[in-house]
Structure formats: C-alpha cells, structure tokens
Design brief:
Blueprint lengths: L2 H15 L10 E7 L3 E8 L4 E8 L3 E2 L2 E2 L2 H19 L5 E6 L5 H13 L3 E7 H9 L4 E6 L3 E8 L2 E9 L2 H12 L3 H9 L4 H23 L6 E5 L8 H9 L2 E4 L3 H9 L13
Parallel strand pairs: 1-6, 6-7, 8-11, 11-12
Antiparallel strand pairs: 1-2, 2-3, 4-5, 8-9, 9-10
Length: about 280
C-alpha cells in the first residue's frame, strides 16, 4: 500500500474521530456507503481530502438490498444532521454505493434513500469501483467484505473488467460467534470488532473466512490476479488476509482503515457543494 494511501486513510480516521467545522468557501463532496452492518457518510474537499465523517451500525441493508427503507432513511438522516452540526455545512448533494451485480431496480432504493433525506443523489457507484478510487489499483483485485455480501472487482490497466457479489460477510462471522458462545448477536458483534478478542475468535470464524475467500478465488479464476486488496470493515479482523492468501493462492493485504475506503472513494463521483451549502 502506497504511503499516500496510508496518509489519506489516517486523515479519514481522524475525520471520523474529530469532524470539524468546514469553511463555507471550501467546496465539498459527500459520499454515502449504505452497508449491511455500518452506514457511513464521508465529507471531502473537491480533491478528495477527508474532512468529516460519521458512521452508525444499522440493520437496514441485507444481501446488498435496502430491506428497511424507513430505517435506512432514519440512519442517513441522523448522520447527515450530525455532520451538518459539526461542519456548519448543508449536505445537499452526494453519491452512494451499491454492491456489484445489484439490479437497476434494487439500486434505485439506495438513490431514493438519499433523496428522501434531502441529499440530491448525483451518482450510484458499485463498491469495489468506489474503493479503487482511493486505492488506485492498476492491476489486481479489490475485494469489499461487508456485513452481508462480498464484492469483487478485477482491475486490469486501471479498468474494472470483472465484478461479482455473493452473500457472505461479517454478519455471518458474528452469527457463528453467537452460536459458538451462546451469546446474543449484539454481543457477538461487539466481540468481533474488539481486536483483543481476535486471537480467541479466529479458530471459530476461520471456516467463514475460508468460505468468503473461496468466493473470491472463484471470482478471480483465470484472471491472472497477482494481488488482492481487501476493504470493508470485516476485512479488519486479524488473520483474514492470511486466510485469503492461503485459500486463493494470491498475496492479499488489508487496506488501512478498511471500513472508510469505500465511502471515501464514492465521494469522488459527487457534485461539489459550494459556499451556498452552508448553515
């Protein structure tokens, strides 16, 4: 991973931890990632520098499809309100992600969620393509491991040539943890994201990781992929890159701050908001 990508993702993490006021003269862009587990809104300047971000766990998308439209609107509205209060800017336009392979009709729901909370949706972009706007992969595969699905994009000469999306992801890991330890799903989710627990949990979730890696292996078969770049919050689980390498036979690495890569990337497709968009 290049030093510039690492620096950008450090800035993204800081923008999530400490969203700040943004001068009304600074044009901004807004990216929304409606994930199966976490929904993230990212605000950048017009050159893609992260300025402010907010996220929230919400069960509003399953297998890449918005199943709880009212709930999705509520969480995006909450994050929008939070960021507008922190930045002093009105988030009036933005772009949103969809998993690769989602139909046009199903993808419209993501568009309408933004429109329903007062964000004019200027673009709908598949998740791995959005992630690659940050990573800048010329040749290889970008794998977005979300809560409910795993999206794969094969990149050749900087262009996406193959995409796929299959149901399996971090939610399935949490379900396995829940069953193995006989604990509620919410507690299992909390343990999964606690890095101090990863050593104990790895043997439990390894079969699920192997299943996800098998999905990736099949998606890139015959594509001469030399490196796999992993994004999405679930890929942050310690040991996942090693399992991916073992199953696919392709060197794999996890991007810095993997949950923030896709929402940061999709902001590139948003129409800039000028000083008129201030509160």
């Amino acid at each position: 991973m290049s030093p510039s990508v690492r620096q950008t993702m450090r800035q993204a993490a800081d923008s999530l931890a400490r969203p700040r006021h943004i001068d009304p003269a600074v044009p901004i862009k807004v990216g929304v990632d409606l994930g199966t587990a976490f929904t993230v809104i990212m605000v950048t300047d017009e050159n893609g520098k992260p300025l402010a971000a907010a996220n929230k766990f919400a069960d509003v998308v399953r297998d890449g499809i918005v199943w709880d439209f009212a709930g999705a609107m509520a969480v995006v509205r909450e994050l929008k309100d939070r960021l507008e209060a922190a930045t002093g800017r009105t988030l009036s336009t933005g772009s949103v992600t969809i998993p690769p392979g989602v139909s046009i009709s199903d993808g419209r729901a993501h568009h309408y969620v933004l429109e329903g909370v007062g964000i004019e949706c200027t673009a709908v972009v598949d998740e791995p393509t959005a992630a690659n706007a940050v990573l800048g992969v010329r040749n290889g595969a970008v794998v977005d491991i979300g809560g409910g699905t795993t999206g794969v994009a094969v990149i050749r000469d900087g262009q996406v040539v193959v995409t796929s999306d299959e149901p399996s992801g971090g939610t399935h890991m949490s379900l396995v943890i829940s069953g193995a330890f006989k604990i509620p799903f919410a507690e299992a989710e909390a343990r999964k994201v606690d890095t101090a627990q990863h050593g104990v949990l790895l043997p439990v979730v390894r079969p699920t990781m192997q299943k996800i890696a098998t999905i990736v292996r099949d998606a890139i078969a015959g594509q001469d992929v030399q490196r796999i770049h992993m994004v999405g919050g679930s890929s942050a689980f310690a040991g996942f890159a090693e399992v991916m390498t073992e199953v696919t036979g392709v060197a794999s690495e996890v991007a810095p701050e993997p949950m923030l890569v896709t929402p940061l990337g999709v902001a590139e497709w948003a129409r800039p908001i000028t000083e008129e968009g201030s509160v």
